[in-house]
Amino acid sequence: MTPARQALRQATRTHHDQVEDLLDVHRPLTDRSYARLLGVFLGLFEPAEAALLAGPSGRSASPARARFAAHDLEALAVPAEAIRRLPRATVPVPRSAEAELGLRYVLEGSSLGAVALARRVAHELPRAPSTFLRSARPRHWPRFLEQLEEAEGPTFDLPAATGAAEATFASLVSLAQDPVAAR
Q: How far apart are CA 157 and CA 43, in angstroms?
């Protein structure tokens, strides 16, 4: 494991665990808990994808997934107005390539958990839509790690990368704690 990857992992471990606990991801899924999970991830992905587009590379996560979370919420009969009112995270536009990598670390890494959750949804809620979860591309994770490794070097701004990853996860924790998102 490269030093940057290890630092990102350590910097986000507590937030990662908090998100899993707040979203009860290890408990049996219900329509309500699944809709809540989708709402929280919509609240992160929508502004995070926009921030990446406005960042140094001008590229979003691969693929852009926020629209799929909204689609799944609509398919679960959540009214469009309720979806629009869901809280959204404040995700700053990355100002450097390293900050962009930190933000992408969270978004790309989420695809790994999405695969496991998609399997659970198929088993526990077989009629529930899972476009958001199935849109995850875990095969992009190794490519992302290669990009992270290639970026590492004597001028790599590790605090910018870890700071962006921590801030992104902190936004996700905040969304998971939000009483509006909990409905």
A: 28
Of 43, 52, 6, which is closest to residue 22 (Cα–Cα)?
43
Q: What is the CA radius of gyration of the chain?
A: 16
Report yes or no on whether pTM surpasses 0.90: yes
Q: How is the chain split into domains, by residue range?
A: 29-177
Q: Is the backbone peptide bond immediately before 63 cis, with ω within 30 degrees of 0?
A: yes
Give me the tens of pLDDT residue by residue for the chain, a chain 183 residues long.
899 999 999 999 999 999 999 998 889 999 999 999 999 999 999 999 999 999 999 887 767 899 999 999 999 999 999 999 999 999 999 999 999 999 999 999 998 999 999 999 999 999 999 999 999 988 889 999 999 999 999 999 999 999 999 999 999 999 999 876 645
Q: How many angstroms from the chain centroid is the CA of residue 107?
A: 4
Architecture of the domain made up of 29-177: Up-down Bundle (1.20)
Q: How many helices (H) and strands (E) does the chain have?
A: 8, 0
Inter-residue contact 161 to 4 (CB < 8 Å): yes
Instruction: Count the neighbouring beta carbons within 10 Å of the beta carbon of residue 26.
Output: 8
